[in-house]
Automatic annotation (TrEMBL):
<keyword id="KW-0029">Amino-acid transport</keyword>
<feature type="transmembrane region" description="Helical">
    <location>
        <begin position="307"/>
        <end position="328"/>
    </location>
</feature>
<keyword id="KW-0813">Transport</keyword>
<comment type="similarity">
    <text>Belongs to the binding-protein-dependent transport system permease family. LivHM subfamily.</text>
</comment>
<protein>
    <submittedName>
        <fullName>Branched-chain amino acid ABC transporter permease</fullName>
    </submittedName>
</protein>
<keyword id="KW-1003">Cell membrane</keyword>
<dbReference type="InterPro" id="IPR052157">
    <property type="entry name" value="BCAA_transport_permease"/>
</dbReference>
<feature type="transmembrane region" description="Helical">
    <location>
        <begin position="98"/>
        <end position="123"/>
    </location>
</feature>
<feature type="transmembrane region" description="Helical">
    <location>
        <begin position="42"/>
        <end position="61"/>
    </location>
</feature>
<dbReference type="InterPro" id="IPR001851">
    <property type="entry name" value="ABC_transp_permease"/>
</dbReference>
<feature type="transmembrane region" description="Helical">
    <location>
        <begin position="190"/>
        <end position="216"/>
    </location>
</feature>
<keyword id="KW-1133">Transmembrane helix</keyword>
<feature type="transmembrane region" description="Helical">
    <location>
        <begin position="237"/>
        <end position="258"/>
    </location>
</feature>
<dbReference type="Pfam" id="PF02653">
    <property type="entry name" value="BPD_transp_2"/>
</dbReference>
<keyword id="KW-0472">Membrane</keyword>
<keyword id="KW-0812">Transmembrane</keyword>
<feature type="transmembrane region" description="Helical">
    <location>
        <begin position="270"/>
        <end position="295"/>
    </location>
</feature>
């Protein structure tokens, strides 16, 4: 039972990332009808917003500490971050320690600007083009973005620690009545799952309970009729593209302590997230979220040594096998609208 619970927790952790990226992909496809293969790059850019803020906060100058000496007896030169010199060692040190959560404040406007620039500068010219053209141009854009990141930040992963308050593991087993230390799970992974649940809930609430969201949902169902009512649906769809970019960026920001940012992380998650979208149903927001968590849990169980010994490499292909089965038996996906992908 402890192993099953632990694998479910691992699956929810992976599924949270899949669901957030797939949610953004589905928002874009459902509103604009665009297959955006550059969406994984937005996840990567969000992670590197965190890297950039961390480097800015740790910019330092050299000072001489008369109270410390090196092995020759000379006063030691030490690096003092500017934020500690400006705000004091306690508050300045706290800013550096909490760089990952603080990045959320910077990622929201930055990712919104990037999303609008991407949509207005390139993708709007491909709305009426075949999906193959959309895939090619957005895939090319993703490669360009990752090469730019590689040029500025290098090819090696960049570790990003979680705040000290969340280092360590939570005794999840004791909470459920098991023996102490039976199920230990990292604090930050639990926080990531909770964060993903809040973001997903906020997006659904925005679409369900606001006038803006209602118009967008109506436009997703029948764009021409909404346009005939005198509503500029295109402007609202641009806003949705920005929201999708923000969701992907925030997913990348909070994932940095779990996976050290690197220039190809967006492409790694994109392929899996696109499979999640197909399994959940193209254009179905609940389907994308449901499939993200289900496939994350399934991949977690497939990573157990028992299954790997039984079928070597099953953890690497299980998601694709599920996608093949779903497409053969239910082409529109688990929660896709009837007729989508079925003609």
């Amino acid at each position: 039972m402890e192993t099953i619970i632990l694998q479910i927790l691992n699956g929810l952790d992976k599924g949270s990332a899949y669901a957030l990226i797939a949610l953004g992909l589905t928002l874009i496809f459902g509103t604009l009808g665009v297959v955006n293969f550059a969406h994984g790059a937005l996840f990567m850019l969000g992670a590197f917003v965190t890297v950039t803020l961390s480097r800015v906060l740790t910019l330092s100058f050299e000072t001489i500490d008369e109270t410390r000496t090196d092995f020759l007896g000379n006063p030691m030169r030490v690096d003092t971050p500017y934020v500690e010199a400006w705000f004091g060692p306690e508050f300045g040190g706290a800013l550096i320690d909490w760089a990952v959560p603080l990045s959320i404040l910077f990622a929201i406007p930055i990712m919104a600007i990037i999303g609008v620039a991407m949509e207005r500068g390139l993708i709007k010219f491909f709305y009426k083009r075949p999906h193959a053209d959309q895939i090619l141009v957005t895939f090319g854009l993703a490669i360009v973005l990752q090469e730019i990141v590689k040029a500025f930040f290098g090819a090696n992963p960049i570790p990003m620690p979680a705040p000290d308050a969340f280092v360590g593991s939570f005794d999840f087993g004791q909470l459920l009545g098991f023996d102490p230390y039976a199920i230990m799970y990292p604090y930050w992974r639990l926080i990531y799952f909770a964060f993903a649940a809040v973001v997903i809930g906020a997006v659904f609430a925005f679409l369900q309970f606001t006038t803006f969201g209602m118009v967008v949902r109506a436009g997703m169902a029948d764009r021409e009729t909404v346009g005939l009512l005198g509503i500029d649906i295109d402007k609202r769809f641009v806003t949705m593209f920005a929201i999708a970019a923000i969701v992907a960026g925030l997913a990348g920001v909070m994932y940095t302590p779990i996976l050290s940012p690197n220039y190809h992380m967006g492409m790694d998650f994109l392929v899996l997230s696109f499979v999640v979208v197909v399994v959940g149903g193209m254009g179905s927001l609940p389907g994308a979220v449901l499939a993200g968590f289900l496939l994350g849990i399934l991949q977690s169980f497939a990573s157990m040594s028992f299954f790997i010994d039984l079928i070597p490499g099953i953890n690497q292909v299980i998601i694709y096998l599920v996608a093949v089965v779903v497409l053969l038996t239910r082409p529109r996906g688990l929660m896709g609208r009837k007729g989508v992908m079925e003609d």
